[in-house]
């Protein structure tokens, strides 16, 4: 696999029939929204056999090395099938050694079962499978799920010869079970939904999310890597890139800092949650979606979610 950023389109009858609705609009705020028709799937190469796949849902990552094959996240069942159809020529008959879930949301794990027959091991942070099961029970979709069989609390690492892959849990952020995945030799980091680029991020408070710790996690992630690191984003505004640099992570940190400050000032001024939510977040009006000011209000007021 070459190491430039060349993109190529994988065509299939499914892709031709698909509509052009961009997936990155989906699942910004609602965990159980019905899937919309998929867009044309795209594989993009980054460097050292590592790349991305976009269709509908969270950005997938992949690595096809001489010693192992790794996939990060699985989108939905239909787009996971598109991924597998396009990925098979790269596999050369090999299995996928590792499927790593960055967290439990269905736009990242909904295709686990589709990939499972081709996968040797599924890995996730230890809180993620329980959250996925709870979500599946609520949606009555357990029959459609495949769960991680290998979990970690804070750190996990495997030496695959040509690449070393590790995962780190920085504590509650987007959910209570997020993992940051690092291809050490390629110096590529998959952020999952801990990174939402130019769009208002979803904060899943019922699943253990924390805005205050999320912004700290972004700062720690930047400190744990270097200026040459390429970051893969879980979601981006339509038309914006799904990869970037530490500057993008720090921009999201600043977004959360501004959000908390804005809401805290509203609380101090005696404004109700409804008043704060209706006022929006003017400094980030160009972001896609809607800011989760109610969640920020609940966190700052120490209200417990149900």
What's the short story on this structure?
This protein has nine helices and 16 strands. The chain is α/β, with parallel strands linked by helices and 306 residues long.
Percent of residues in beta strands: 15-25%
Q: What is the percent of helical residues?
A: 25-40%
CA-atom Rg in angstroms: 19 Å
Looking at this structure, what is the CATH superfamily?
Ribonuclease Z/Hydroxyacylglutathione hydrolase-like
Number of domains: 1
Report the biggest beta sheet as strand number plus sense, adding barrel if it closes.
8 strands, mixed
Terminus-to-terminus distance: 47 Å
Average predicted local confidence, pLDDT: 88
Alpha plus pi helix count: 9
**In CATH terms, what is the fold-level topology?**
Metallo-beta-lactamase, Chain A
Structure classification? alpha/beta
User: What is the name of the CATH architecture?
Assistant: 4-Layer Sandwich
Low-confidence stretches: 1-38
Number of DSSP-assigned strands: 16
Secondary-structure element sequence? EHEEEEHEHHEHEEEEEEHEEEHHH
């Amino acid at each position: 696999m070459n190491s430039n950023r060349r993109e190529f389109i994988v065509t299939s009858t499914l892709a031709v029939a698909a509509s052009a609705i961009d997936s990155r609009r989906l699942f910004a705020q609602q965990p159980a929204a019905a899937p919309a028709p998929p867009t044309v799937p795209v594989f993009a190469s980054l460097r050292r056999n590592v790349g991305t796949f976009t269709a509908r849902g969270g950005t997938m990552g992949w690595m096809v090395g001489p010693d192992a094959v790794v996939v990060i996240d699985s989108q939905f069942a239909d787009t996971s099938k598109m991924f597998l159809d396009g990925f098979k020529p790269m596999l050369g008959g090999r299995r996928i050694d590792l499927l790593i879930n960055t967290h439990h949301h269905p736009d990242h794990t909904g295709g686990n079962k589709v990939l499972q027959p081709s996968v040797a091991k599924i890995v996730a942070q230890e809180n993620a499978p329980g959250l996925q099961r709870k979500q599946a029970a609520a949606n009555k979709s357990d029959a459609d799920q495949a769960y991680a069989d290998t979990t970690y609390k804070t750190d996990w690492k495997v030496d695959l010869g040509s690449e070393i892959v590790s995962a780190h849990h920085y504590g509650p952020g987007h959910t209570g079970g997020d993992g940051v995945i690092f291809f050490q030799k390629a110096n590529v980091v998959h952020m999952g939904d801990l990174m939402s680029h130019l769009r208002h991020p979803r904060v899943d408070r019922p699943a253990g999310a924390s805005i205050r710790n999320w912004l700290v996690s972004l700062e720690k992630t930047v400190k744990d890597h270097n200026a040459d690191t390429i970051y893969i984003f879980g979601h981006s505004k339509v038309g914006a890139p799904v990869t970037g640099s530490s500057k993008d992570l720090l921009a999201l940190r600043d977004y959360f800092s501004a959000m908390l400050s804005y809401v805290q000032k509203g609380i101090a001024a005696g404004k109700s949650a409804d008043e704060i939510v209706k006022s929006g977040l003017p400094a980030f009006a160009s972001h896609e979606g809607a800011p989760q000011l109610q969640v920020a209000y609940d966190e700052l007021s120490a209200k417990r979610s149900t």
